[in-house]
Amino acid sequence: MTEDWETLTLIWTGICAFAVIMYVLMDGFDLGLGILFPFAPRDADRDLMMNSVAPIWDFNETWLILGGAGLFAAFPLVYSVVLPALYLPLFLMLIALIFRGVAFEFRFKARSSRHLWDRSFHFGSLFATFAQGVVLGSLIQGIEVSGRNYAGGMLDWLSPFSVLTGIALIFGYALLGATWMIWRSDGELQQWAYRTARTLLFVVLAFVLVVSVWTPIADPGIRERWFSVPNIIYLAPVPVVTGLTALALLRALDRGREVAPFVLTMVLFLLSFMGLAISLWPHIVPPSITIWDAASPPESQVFLLVGMVFLIPTILLYTAYCYWVFRGKVTGAFYH
User: Fold this and answer.
1) What does pTM read for this prediction?
2) What are the φ and ψ backbone dihedral angles of 317, each rounded to 5 degrees?
3) How confident is the model at residue 3 (pLDDT cuts 50, 70, 90)?
4) What values do phi and psi take at 120, rounded to 5?
């Protein structure tokens, strides 16, 4: 029974991790478009940027709901600890996502108030991304727990490191958004996206370097995980492949590739996610709560896993179908 429970817990860990990374990749590029929105060359270009994600942005956020529901079902202790610890940034994220969603519906219908919805789209994307980065940084630096309850203060999440990760994610999502527009646009807008992506790549790599150095310095456990022998030999491919991917992305931008920059940027995010998983495993709420501590009873996990077996393939098929239907270069000729 214990082995079955451990296997179920690992399966649910994989499901939640998959939902999180799918959300980051899928919603990351349209949040990135919102971040870049006011910097586009012309108002017509902003129309094209919004048109490129208007048919797909809402189901990109399906992964956020799936990840949250899966986390609540399989790891209820995480909710009881993380929500009081990160209430303010999570609340900011939800409010920002609401304003951003409303902007999608109202911007093309408004006349005199159009500039307000432009700002709503931009600042909603900006604050939602910053809040997500702050949550990530707070989890990496650790949450104070006593027994099975949060033992810290209301503002413990606010630290130089969490602010740094919040800003870093803003630039990371902006890079995803710029490479998305390289793929989905042409002409002047595409050339602007090429220039923007190249600049953003260097900024993102600088943030990755700072976070990668800061984290092991601040946490002896993570430092031991990465730099002890023989771990340093086994884990060396992760930073090496990350560097090679960044170089390939730079070359793709210089050579005018259209699809490769977006794909390689997603690979950079996947490698960063892998590095984070290596650093924190098996903790789900560092530094004291592991996936085994937080897991729900096996009966609950089995019951909900049956639903996930049908739900995840359905979402994947629907997502693939929608992206196929709305493939190709975006024009100003459609909305919704």
Assistant:
1) 0.91
2) -65, -45
3) low
4) -60, -45
Distance CA 232, CA 60 (A): 36
How many angstroms separate the Cα of 206 from the Cα of each of 13, 95, 101, 209, 210? 30, 30, 31, 5, 6
As given in the structure block, the two tokens for residue 47 are 């129309």
- The amino acid at residue 245 is T
Cα distance between residue 61 and residue 55, in whole Å: 12
Could you give the C-alpha distances from 37 to 50, 197, 245, 264, in angstroms and in order?
9, 14, 27, 22
Q: What are phi and psi of 68, to 5 degrees?
A: -65, -45
**DSSP reduced 3-state for 213:** helix
User: Using omega within 30 degrees of 0 as the cis cutoff, is the peptide bond preceding 76 cis?
Assistant: no
Does residue 305 have a pLDDT over 80?
yes
Report H helices in 142-186. 160-184
Where exactly are the structural domains of the chain? Answer: 2-325
